[in-house]
């Protein structure tokens, strides 16, 4: 080993800290970048030694390769330094362990599959650049402290069949490079290689990691192993098949083909197979063997899940739109030092020379900038203009209803070339103006509007601002962001191309935090609408590109937690939150993160406790409404009504609270109060669910024509909503309009063919039952319970199906189960349940509500 390599203390701006490892002619050091203040690894070689000439060439070649790669799953090149006779590659320091070392700790199969998928992602990135790694093995895969896999050591890689180490660009053949146990047949025989060689090595790695041995047997005898790699056909053993699963086993078998042309899968495709790998056949639920993904199998879904997951209240094929009680995320804080800033609707006036095409851009710039600036304030929460505007009265009254401690009012007067902005702050007991700022901005310069508004707003809260860490963004990037924001309606009308555009935007400006937040909303909407995990995968990749400096940003952490929870990686989500508790000082951000964790992680008890705390921290119509929904989901109807009443005391026209109160009243059989509340809710919110809710209440009151009229209004808003169609069909049937009823039932059946979701199965089964096709109704119900064995959303539908088919025993059991999940007794007062009145169990369970039904 060169003496020079043994006594390095500094290379350029890098302070050498300690040695990490060494080979025959090189040393790897841990060093500190004095300018960027981060730890790095430096691979050093002494260029003055003739014996190292080849290694120097290889090191320079590796630098050229790494410079082309940009993946969160490849160790990144930062710099190349030369000093005296030293050459060093400055690369990302990964402070974890190798994959080989981590596998010795027996991680779960799910974790190993994720690591392998990340390795495949890294390979895919390299292969897109025409780069083959040529030495993929467990020792060249590093697992970071955050459990992310990264491929290292591209020292012998090949590029588009051109060897960087050859002066003439010719491919070197007749030589073997790489670790012998991971070689492909073409490598082992010294033949030219390309990216397909990596796929063979990847299959070896997958097999070793999951099965626990080499696919070609014992590795101690190098010559014998290489002979088997080159000559012996691969056969997938039965025990390996059971571990890998059918589909992944097929992929691995194909990639272990001798001829490169026979390997049919790309690295990207392998990554997707790894992510979608199913639990192996024959695995028992109580098996605790490592590398096997265990899934919990609860005997029954708890009551809270039955209500929150369905988003609708079942009633005789009628569904009360429980979207009204779906949890509405809110800001809150951890103690009474948290402040709440309400943003009033931004007022924009224009003169005749103003270009109206600029209005959406200017309006969005002002709105998003003001919101983002408030959210950046320490221990300060945002009360949206939507929530604030929903309350009538003067500023003092509206502040009381929303829990605001101050109010911001923004005015813009725009002409041909400029806008005059005026920002006012209201606070104090009377909510009077305490500060005001005015300034002009150019109408065409959106980033100037953004930057000046942000600076002026933060200046109104000097104690909470604590310096502005927001980085500048170019005009073209900001306009691209706004285009996506407007076209997607802030994520509500998301399209896959929106996420692709944001991905590219973030690659150009990785410090632009609002783009990450919008990417989360777009991905969230796409995932909800399509159920396709590819959108979550893309969001996860976008987040992985975030610079280290953003790892502690609450927006980034919130997006990461959301992804983990949607992928059912709950332990990792909890670890992220624990990390946030250590590094995030903003109490408001922390409770928002915990609220996300509880809501998206299906932790109702935790969510209930947070809602109770929030209603004390920020007494407002919204916080009491959220508390009411949580109490309702647990069957705490008295507590739910008390919280609703508090919400309506603060805002008597709050449509969501009115709808919830009507729902609770209807469940308790108080139809007069339910009809009153739904009618009042419709005065300010003419939604399909409110019309449908009113229709159900009227139908329960035997006002079938009134019910039909309201269901028609609901269908005018959403004409293919199968719940509304089912409701109106039942109303026509009760009104003795059997032909019309049959047409609507048929429409439900057509729209749910083939059924895929719980709602589609449920509506389809009820439509068949009401149309008299009992065999299809029962088949649909059975298929639903097989597809969703842990859901309790089918009991009421089952009660209808079995009642209509005259299976009284099964119907009575379904009635009891429906009541246990929170369905109100009032839903069993419809005429088709009359045939159950001869069943003593039915009468006992449903009285007194069904006394009138069973009186005759």
Automatic annotation (TrEMBL):
The keyword Cell membrane does not apply. Gene3D superfamilies: Phosphorylase Kinase, domain 1, Tetratricopeptide repeat domain, Transferase(Phosphotransferase) domain 1. ATP binds at residue 43. This is Protein kinase domain-containing protein. PROSITE patterns: PROTEIN_KINASE_ATP, PROTEIN_KINASE_DOM, PROTEIN_KINASE_ST, TPR. Residues 14-274 form the Protein kinase domain. It comes from Arenicella chitinivorans. GO terms for molecular function: ATP binding; protein serine/threonine kinase activity. PANTHER family: MITOGEN-ACTIVATED PROTEIN KINASE KINASE KINASE 20-RELATED, SERINE_THREONINE-PROTEIN KINASE NEKL-3.
